[in-house]
Write a structure and sequence with these properties.
The protein is mainly β. It has 7 helices and 45 strands. The chain has a 22-stranded antiparallel barrel. The radius of gyration is 28 Å and the shape is globular. The two termini are 17 Å apart. It comes from Pseudoalteromonas phenolica.
């Protein structure tokens, strides 16, 4: 591989100001997807391979970019530096990851929530429908659906660029797939892998293949790739829920008590299958014209059973002499006695879901290059659909409820023990008593786009080229639930018990964090409950929660690329007009809401050579982040069982952010870097979700109603430190640390931190590489962070979380590798607390350790 080392003369502040003022007066602008480097007077050729080659290539991209960019490079097929794309992103300064089910499914970039970062594929938005029915309906492509083998690298743009699609306050992640004309003819790659999950104690297979061809003249290229991965997702949870809607509870002495309303021991057991298909065609029509056609298909099925033993304090009565309270007066331990027949204070809940998601993307690009200008024309479309079937049942002893009494202790991780565990361990003693749902959730998202980009080379001492372009994007997102709930009374008349769907027992749960008294085993239902629901569902379909959001987005930009004696950069302006039509119903009243807004988004990026190896950077710009579809829907989603309602706000304004970067980077050898960057974001029209108890139609009194609203401003400031060193003896180290200070004004006028953001985060990895081995050990840490949107509906804090991963690759031959990887070696758990209730633990999630053994061949 050849890397170029750019060396330029130094600049003066006066010349820099002249560039900025001159470009501003000309109304020119700058972009950041297609970075242009200044003329190179010296070229240094460096031959590297393996891990060092990946690091060198990534640093090369960062070094010669005009904007604030971090990169990750896969130096060869199948050699992406981490198990999946999300794991790799946590090695980037300023990025922390969000794990909900063990795998990374979101990223927090520089003090902004995951939904405020955009994930693009080859520079374009990709339709997405969320993970499953409980997943957020946001605008960012879910990179869990994309196999790492098909990615040649990614760029994370942290500063604003006129040419990049607007929509990200945090960062824009551009995933790049491989192209056939960039590869050797008849390149072939294949791999097979087995994954073992320690909690599930099961092994799952995965395989992938890629073939790339081009003709001798390198005019025509074809690439085809396919991957399929089966995996086990296993989450064990101990959870406490907030106080019930009735408020205080009364014990056997008629004393009012403040207590948690419910608690549970939960097993989320999922069988996941992910498939990814890619077809790329390239044709060089002439010396001036080339055409690229890319098609990608992503499929994800994750059938799962969520089994739980729930304890509801309000269905019983606390024994007065068993009560222990904390300093805030909340009950942390007690014995809850059954209060009579009809309700089961301790009951079994089974939720079966069959999510099936599919996303495809078709992109056609034509590039025309003339002597002093070039033009790119792109048209494309992306469609996504999600279909999730769900059935839910509640089972308990409703005839002799004394057998459903229980003891609980929530002072630490939940302790929950039935008074008569042997009775409740029998499936036949648990009768259907509350619900039998049969629902199909439908989600659809479509994106159609067309754009034209132009570059004009100039004969100028400062402004070297001008870029300009337009883009038109039309997108629609719809969601609804088709309900065919079963007649519970009819099912009860059949005498159904859990024994009719006997799935045996789960045992040995909560081994890492649970205490001795934790409920670690209980009876569960099997998947035959799904067949029963299908056979007994009513023919009539009731549509609920329907909404449709249509958006037409028109954007135009202009940018100026400039360079001079020791400096380079760009200055730009992007203008975006958004027209929205939201359809649906609230309180069963159908309607529609129209909304339009226009945003003017200037940007400036500057890189100055302090010396041959030291670069000073400055960036400033404005951007927007549109509300999620969840927030914008004209719909209300009501859960009568849990007395909650989620109500949309279609008239929301987008977040607006003015942001600034200033940093220094020292490249003291081709694969080494020492850098620091200071960043600031000033955000207006910040959107907050508020939850208030009110009387809501269809939900009743004391319903917890959640709405989103623009409430005020937010400020983010922080510093990123990055160190990467290649010892040139096979060993190397990567380290980054990010400090982030955030505050926002909430709906009560209070100053509070931004949710999902850790103040301190760091990543440390060390590697060794030889002709035979590549070994890496990677450590990730983030301190506590606020999470507002959790199961309890209350503001909560996640404890600090760290994770240790490892990988070993043995090069059997030049063409054959054998690999071993371990994820979450120490089986770390996610712990969520309620500070407003005496720092009581709300939930503990354990994911287990995953091991991967694989082999690959390439020619």
């Amino acid at each position: 591989m050849k890397l170029t080392n750019q060396k330029q003369p130094k600049t003066t502040l006066a010349s820099y100001l002249a560039v900025c003022i001159g470009a501003a007066l000309s109304g020119l602008s700058v972009s950041a997807v297609a970075e242009e480097t200044a003329a190179k007077s010296d070229v240094e050729v460096i031959e590297v391979r393996g891990i060092r080659r990946s690091l060198t290539e990534a640093l090369n991209t960062k070094r010669f970019a005009n904007s604030v960019v971090d990169s990750i490079s896969a130096e060869d097929i199948g050699k992406f530096p981490d198990k999946n794309i999300g794991d790799a992103m946590q090695r980037i300064p300023g990025v922390t990851v969000v794990r909900t089910f063990g795998e990374v499914n979101g990223v927090t970039v520089r003090g902004t929530a995951p939904e405020h970062s955009m994930v693009l594929l080859n520079g374009q938005n990709v339709a997405s429908v969320g993970w499953f029915d409980l997943g957020g309906m946001n605008r960012s492509f879910n990179f869990e659906m994309l196999a790492a083998e098909q990615i040649s690298g990614m760029d994370v743009y942290k500063s604003v660029e006129a040419q990049i699609n607007e929509g990200a306050m945090g960062g824009t992640v551009n995933l790049k797939t491989r192209k056939p004309l960039d590869m050797d003819a008849n390149t072939f790659y294949a791999s097979a892998e087995a994954a073992y999950h320690t909690s599930a104690k099961e092994t799952s297979p995965a395989y992938s293949a890629l073939y790339s061809w081009k003709d001798d003249a390198e005019k025509i290229g074809v690439l085809f790739a396919y991957s399929n991965e089966e995996s086990k997702v296993y989450r064990e949870t101990l959870s406490n829920f907030g106080p019930g809607p009735t408020g205080d509870f009364v014990d056997t002495d008629d004393t009012a008590r403040k207590s948690y309303g419910a608690m549970s021991s939960i097993l989320f057991d999922e069988s996941r299958e992910r498939a990814s298909t890619q077809l790329s065609l390239q044709y060089v029509v002439s010396d001036n014209l080339s055409v690229d056609l890319d098609y990608n298909l992503f499929e994800l099925k994750n059938n799962h059973v969520n089994s739980a033993m729930f304890a509801v304090v309000g269905f019983g009565q606390m024994q007065a002499d068993s009560v222990t309270e904390n300093s805030l007066g909340y009950v942390t331990a007690a014995t809850s006695l059954a209060s009579g027949p009809g309700y089961a204070p301790l009951f079994n809940n089974a939720v079966l879901r069959k999510p099936d998601m599919q996303t495809d993307a078709l992109n056609l690009k034509a590039e025309y290059v003339a002597e002093s200008w070039k033009a790119d024309f792109v048209i494309g479309r992306s469609n996504a659909e999600g279909r999730t079937g769900q059935t839910s049942t509640w089972w308990g002893d409703i005839t002799d409820t004394a057998n459903s009494s229980f003891k609980f202790d929530v002072a630490g991780p939940l302790e929950l023990q039935p008074t008569n565990p042997s009775y409740l361990s029998k499936h036949s003693n648990l009768a259907l008593f509350h619900e039998f749902t049969y629902i199909n959730y439908l989600r659809d998202n479509s994106i159609d786009y067309a754009q034209a980009d132009f570059n004009f080379q100039l004969e100028s001492d400062i402004v070297t080229s001008i870029d300009a372009g337009v883009k038109f994007q039309s997108q629609a997102f719809s969601s609804q639930g088709n309900y065919q709930d079963l007649d519970v009374a009819a099912a009860q008349a059949e005498g159904l018990t859990l024994d009719n769907f006997n799935g045996g027992f789960v045992s040995g749960l909560h081994s890492a964090q649970g205490r001795a008294g934790s409920l670690s085993s209980f009876p569960v239902a099997n998947t035959s409950i799904w067949a029963y629901a299908e056979q007994n569902k009513p023919s009539a379909v009731t549509v609920k929660d329907y909404f449709l959001i249509e958006e037409d987005i028109s954007a135009a930009y202009v940018k100026a690329n400039f360079s001079g004696e020791g400096f380079r950069g760009n200055l730009g302006l992007r203008i975006v007009e958004t027209d929205i039509l939201s359809k649906g119903s609230i309180n069963d009243i159908a309607g529609e809401v129209k909304k339009s807004y226009t945003n003017y988004l200037p940007s400036l990026n500057l890189a100055m050579d302090i010396s041959d190896d030291v670069i000073f950077r400055f960036a400033a710009g404005s951007t927007v982040s549109r509300p999620d579809y969840d927030d914008m829907k004209l719909a209300d989603i009501i859960s009568e069982s849990f007395k909650t309602a989620n109500v949309g706000s279609p008239d929301l304004d987008p977040y607006k952010s003015d942001q600034y970067d200033m940093g220094v980077e020292w490249y003291f050898n081709p694969a080494s870097l020492l850098g620091a960057t200071f960043f600031v974001k000033n955000i207006s029209d910040y959107i907050e979700q508020t939850t208030v108890a009110e009387n809501y139609a269809g939900c009743g009194e004391a319903c917890l109603v959640t709405r989103s609203r623009n409430v005020g401003t937010a400020d983010v400031k922080g510093i990123e430190l990055q160190y990467q060193y290649d010892f040139e003896n096979g060993f190397g180290v990567q380290f980054n640390y990010t400090y982030t200070d955030t505050s926002r004004t909430n709906s009560l006028g209070e100053e509070v931190p931004i949710e999902e953001v850790s103040r301190n985060s760091l990543n440390l990895s060390g590697f060794y590489e030889s002709d035979l081995f590549s070994v890496r050990l990677a450590y990730n840490y983030r301190d506590d962070w606020i999470r507002q949107n959790n199961d309890s509906g209350l503001g909560s804090i996640n404890d600090a979380y760290d994770q240790l991963d490892a990988s070993v690759v043995y090069h059997v031959t030049d063409n054959v590798d054998v690999s071993f990887e371990a994820v979450n070696l120490l089986n770390e758990a996610l712990v969520l607390r309620h500070p407003g209730f005496g720092n009581v633990v709300h939930s503990v999630d354990e994911f287990g350790t995953r091991y991967y053994l694989g082999a690959s061949v390439r020619f």
